[in-house]
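Intended use. Records like the one below are meant for learning the mapping from a protein sequence to its folded structure. Do not use them to infer anything beyond what is encoded.
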Amino acid sequence: MSQTPRIVLASASARRSALLAQLKVPHHVCPAQIAEHRLAGESIAQCVQRLAQHKAEIVWALLNAGAANAALVGLPVLGADTVVVLGELMLGKPRDREDALRMLGLLSGREHEVLSAVAVRTAAALQVRVSHSRVRFRPLERAECEAYWDSGEPADKAGAYAVQGLGAIFVETLQGSYSGVMGLPLFETAALLAGAGVAVLGSRKQRDGARG
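Structure written out for the chain above:
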C-alpha cells in the first residue's frame, strides 16, 4: 500500500490484505514462515489460536531485532489462521488435486465449522480472538469439484474452497462471520486493532478519545 503502514500483516494472503484495506488500515505485508500443523494432544481451537499467535510473535521478533526497516519497528503485528472443521477432522490447505477433491467430497451435502483466529502483538501485549462460523454445502458432483480445482481457486484455501469466489455456488447456508470464513474476521480484527490504538473507521475508542 502507498500510505504509511500503521500495522504489519504477518501473512501473504491477498484476501487478508484486501480485508484490512476494507477497514482502511494501511499495512505492510511480512509473511510469517512457520510450520502449520496440529500438535499432539492439541484441540483444533487451540491449534488455530496458537498458529495465529505464533505468526504475530515471529514477525514481531523479526522486525524488532534491529535489522529490519526502522519504519516498521514497534508497529502492531497481526497474525491470522483459518481452518475448516468437520467433526474431529481439521481441513487446512489441500496438498494437491486429489486432496482437494477428497476435502470437497467430505464437505458435500454437510455442515462444517470454520474457525478463524486473529492475533495482534504490540509492545504491551499479545491479544487473540477466535471467530466461529457454520457453513452448509449443497451436495456436490465429482465433475463440478474437478472443474472447480481446474479453476485454480481451491489450491491455497482452507477446506479447498473460497466463499468469496466460485466456491460461493456450493454454500447453501452460512451462519457467523462471512469475513471469518474468508480468512480474517473483521469484527474481531477491528476490536483488537482498536485495543492496540489503531483507528478503524472512527472506532468508538477513538471517538471517545476525541470527545475527551
